[in-house]
Specification:
Blueprint (H helix, E strand, L loop, with lengths): L10 E2 H7 L6 H20 L2 E2 L8 E3 L6 E3 L6 E2 L2
Antiparallel strand pairs: 1-3, 2-5, 3-4
Length: 79
Amino acid sequence: RLYLVFEYLENMLLEILEESPNGLDTESVRYFIFQLLMAIEFCHRSNVIHRDIKPENLLINPKNNDLRLCDFGFARTLT
């Protein structure tokens, strides 16, 4: 068995999007997308495909807007 342990972050991107009915500002969107692409790139370099990227699986640190990709339940390794 493999267990993944993550830091606790109480916000997910879905909640932030729901709180902002007019959308997020351009800089926040740019920062979130950059971080998401870096996370996906790291997974792919490690031969892992996430397969379930959605706002519920993107955790946000409210202090600095750092993004974490979570829920690797559907993830698969490439051989």
